[in-house]
Amino acid sequence: MRIACDPRRFSNGISRFLQLPNGLDGDEHARFRALVDRYFTPAAMAEFAPACRAVARALVDRLPRDRPFDAVGDLGAPFAVRAQAAWLGWPVELERPLLDWLAARQEATRTGDREQLAAVAESFDAIVRSVVAPRRGGDGTRDVTDRLVNDVSLGRGLEEDEIVSILRNWTGGDLGSLALAVGVVVHALATRRGLAELLRDESSVERFDRAIEECLRLEDPFVASRRRVLEETEVAGCPVAAGRAISLDWAAANRDPDVFSPPDAFEPEANAAANLVYGIGPHVCPGRPLARLELRELVHALLAAAPEIALAGDPTRELPPLGGFRAVPVRFAFSRE
Length: 337
Fold this sequence. Notes:
The chain is 50% helix and 10% strand. The protein is mostly helical.
């Protein structure tokens, strides 16, 4: 937490690629972060909520009632792509390319193959540029992407590479993260007694979100992020030279026994203030309002579809540096067994 909240000594500018706003620090980061935050206001989320709800319900309606399905591959990944496309105003024809890209990116991430990662990044940039070009010269009212392409809140228009970087940040990481988050939450619904009843209580959105984020704390799919050390310092008594790259292990921090006692206990209210599932500090995830909305609508759709969700086989855990589950076989249960 100290490192994440100290951009003066620990920089987010660690990638060789342009990353807006998360690859910036200081005043420049604050300028771009202010621009980005305008797309995630409560009013913006309320406007998108009906479309998000429709995507969730349509996808859940198509899930089989008489046989198992995979909470990640059959639900999480397509929901992430469809919900994000609906928010951005992207055409439905991009669903298959985005799903193929997501699978390729996760495989490249597991193996750490730099050439494959670079190829995957280039293919995604091509998808992004294909939706940017038709919106050049628009009035910013067609959809969220049109608004971004024609955004002048910095006192100037955004350059092509800046637009692509922001859209890559909104989609590239979020598609995989949301798919994994869905797997974690559905696994919790199938294995944690009383969770479905807790989430059916719609009297408090905040309590609902805290319960979802406690599930994500326990099986954190957002494993780590990096920082560049700007000056010689110490981390927990260990000398670290300037210029070194370090990794912030959010998943380990979210199970710190000095903070969460015991770490495995499901205590949404008690653990909410210390939960780091969306990060902390100036680079706390800007898209967390959207992720919360998407997970909220999907869970509501699942709970409306059947009384229970049950495991239908052994889950397969993801491999580092990914977290959560690669596959979670489940089924709708219509009677207690």
